[in-house]
User: What shape does this take?
Amino acid sequence: MVLWGLVPGTLLVAMVGCLWLLGLFRQRRPQEPPLDKGFIPWLGHAMAFRKNMFEFLKYMRAKHGDVFTVQLGGQYFTFVMDPLSFGSILKDAQRKLDFVKYAEKLVLKVFGYRSMQGDHRMIHSASTKYLMGDGLEDLNKTMLDSLSLVILGPTGQSLDAGCWREDGLFHFCYNVLFKAGYLSLFGCTKNQEQDLLQAEELFVQFRKFDFLFPRFVYSLLGPWEWLEVARLQRLFHRMLSVNHNLEKNGISNWISYMLQCLREQGTAPAMQDKFNFMMLWASQGNTGPNSFWALLFLLKHPEAMRAVRKEAAQVLGEAKLKARQSFGIEISALHHTPVLDSVMEETLRLGTAPTLLRVVHGDHILKMASGQEYLLRSGDIVALFPYLSVHMDPDIHPEPTAFKYDRFLNPNGSRKVDFYKSGKKIHHYTMPWGSGVSICPGRFLALSEMKLFVLLMVTYFDLELVDPDTPVPPVDPRRWGFGTTQPSREVRFRYRLRPAK
Assistant: This one.
């Protein structure tokens, strides 16, 4: 009887423990931000957040103000929506807000890559050496050759001048940028036809993975989808194997340097394969979608297209493709395109929506620009969503939803960098690449790739929408928070190569 009498008590303790783990008993402590746990234990607001992150955060901001904590799938996230208060989070002089550990868990889950100590510094060191200055110039030249190969074909001109071709604009941009980027970074064999076929197959599989990616990160896949993700991971590990690198020429110094560092650290070849998959994703997952938005905005705004083409003609001269030759552009021209720079910056403002995350190590006081202080609880995650709090702020960017190609130009044609909020000059007036320790190390390469592609398209091709009245499609709500947004539907367009002289 004594034994059976212990059972109810044991069950009660177990139930209380489970409820505590589910977050049911968490209460807001003095000085902590407003706490909104939702009505579902453990899940909290996860479903609404994953359905449409942008609309969810708009609602929570209206309800709670610029700082609030929400429960999402057993984890507590504190969102800070005041950009004037971002500085202390991004600089983190006390080292209480950690980005690296969170990133390591994510890349292990998504790419199968187990990070080693110092990987973050290695990637930034490699990017400084080879994705800036002379290293970037060399890679841009390789990228120009790869774009010529992908668009014009191995013979130099697979397109008939004057003949219109039709495609989906998103597919076209993503396909071309992915294949050219892959060949530029991971090298080619002596058989260009075979290289193009392999790049095309890789792109097809990449898009399958890309489609599943948001729900994969949130662990919302169905049983068959989990199997498909596992198959795709194995396929990329095999196709990007370091053993295949031995068969190729022209592997970028950027990739070679990092693989050499991994070998010196004793990283197994199989783990190097997974590293290659991670770097393929990091380098090619956003340039194509961003280029789609840039060309679509230009096609929907003729005055912007005219301004970019006028600038291109001034910088490049009368650039016409000669028979059986690749595109001829001086890479140095990319440094003299303020109008195109503004177009790209405006495109990134409208089209990129990353989430910046930091794990709180030890209870931490967050001081806001207003002087108010909040206590952040150890183990929680601090989150910034600049798209809503910065890019769409009408105080910083008047008419924030409108595309204004000259928004980032001063009247004298120089780059505009002075933006204000509440009368105060703001440092983080756009944040498409993240910021602080989590800033994208390949941002200079990505931007030059997109600029080069857009320059080629507006200079060497006639472009038009199949339906000029088609509206700019809304963003696929599943892509909020994952870097570059993607359209909820395709946009058909026509293009033709201008006749050679």
